[in-house]
Amino acid sequence: MTLAGVKGFLIDIDGVLTTGETAIPGAREAIQDLTELGYPFRCVSNSTRKCRATLAARLERLGFAIPECTIFTPPAAAVRYMEETGKHRAFLLTTGDVERDFAGACTDNGSTAVDYVIVGDAGDRVTYAGMNRAFRCLMEGAELIALEKDRYWMDRDGLSLSAGPFVVALESATGKIATVVGKPSKEFFHLALHDMGLPAQDVVMIGDDIYTDIGGAQAAGMRGVLVRTGKFRKDACEKSTIRPEATINSIRDIRTLL
Amino acid sequence: MTLAGVKGFLIDIDGVLTTGETAIPGAREAIQDLTELGYPFRCVSNSTRKCRATLAARLERLGFAIPECTIFTPPAAAVRYMEETGKHRAFLLTTGDVERDFAGACTDNGSTAVDYVIVGDAGDRVTYAGMNRAFRCLMEGAELIALEKDRYWMDRDGLSLSAGPFVVALESATGKIATVVGKPSKEFFHLALHDMGLPAQDVVMIGDDIYTDIGGAQAAGMRGVLVRTGKFRKDACEKSTIRPEATINSIRDIRTLL
What we know:
The structure is a homodimer.
Chain A: E1 8-12, E2 18-19, E3 22-23, H1 27-36, E4 41-44, H2 52-61, E5 71-72, H3 74-85, E6 90-93, H4 96-102, E7 116-119, H5 128-139, E8 143-146, E9 152-155, E10 158-161, H6 164-174, E11 179-180, H7 186-196, E12 203-207, H8 210-219, E13 223-227, H9 234-239, E14 246-248
């Protein structure tokens, strides 16, 4: 059995449960099945501009019964990271919505004496003053955490800088290397596993991206099931040296593997 | 003769002509000598926060007779660079004072269709919108010019980010490599030579920094004379593999070499 001994799942949201503003046929029922069968899961997304509550509300609108606490994103990973280290002083360079994920999880007294500088896709909140405070915090001993390290994304009015270049700027200024807590970093997957309380060998990642989902999960010690929805492309899979443990037409078929 | 065939000079301002707000003894007379003997020269500085007019006014206050057109800085080098390529559309990410050096030399219609993105130490003028416009200009074909690539400097209230990290951010976002037109880049020295209309072998650089002044000038094909003023340190010279063509107590003694 491909999924022998599986005790829990990580499930990519975009491309596995939804495409754009539509639920993928059978995805709601698959989530219901896993819930009824008692499998714990985390729905993962690399979103660093939307907080977990916003993502949960969107899934609810699309008919999913997915509690907010089972949504796992880079901000959630960063919060988990802080819980594990027991250090909570952080300077956030992120957008307002995502800061809701950090409410109660960290404190900021406005000084440069913090434990973490956490950089996400901050958009217009990137200023010289903000970058300079981040720089000074790092020079005084803070650790650099990147919610993602993408270079750019397609905004409505054109290509726009993501968090990556600003993270690289702070790395080059300080000589420090950021800990990336977004998919497909090992750190992200390990924090998601810790959040579920399961070891990697007991967990299966279900994703539509052969590289970041399947390759990332396998590098973190998990098994990977590829779905033929979302960004799935047959030729990308054939070219890749990554081999998923199973490939299914959509998450609707996950129960055939159990 | 060490300086056989010399036809012109590049002279570092800080540490050779001035220290802080004081003229180095004999420096005014040395400039007067060179002028009377008919040697063309450029007074060079890596200042990217002060325009040439501001630097000239400061030198005048200290008693120097140095025309503004003989002051050569990274912004002057960038203007020279644009003159040589015949392309003049540029987006400037610099401070207000330095923009005076670019007045008349380049145009900016506010679009992303420009020839150059020119990044200096822009301080509070670094915004997400500015960085994003720079990014889009580069993605649409503009060339990246860095007035300097320093990581940080000591401002009154603490260490502060210089232009370097923001240049690195744009390089990492676009995959382009910046042309650095500040000392000690070869580009800077070559543009200064073009500005004087002299070949490298006919020009001597007078500086107080064994690495950036002497090493940089020699790498560009010039000769270098080290002065024992400014940041000169005997042990730094002894440790270095760089050998100046001559070392003199101060620029006052330059005429002994002619």
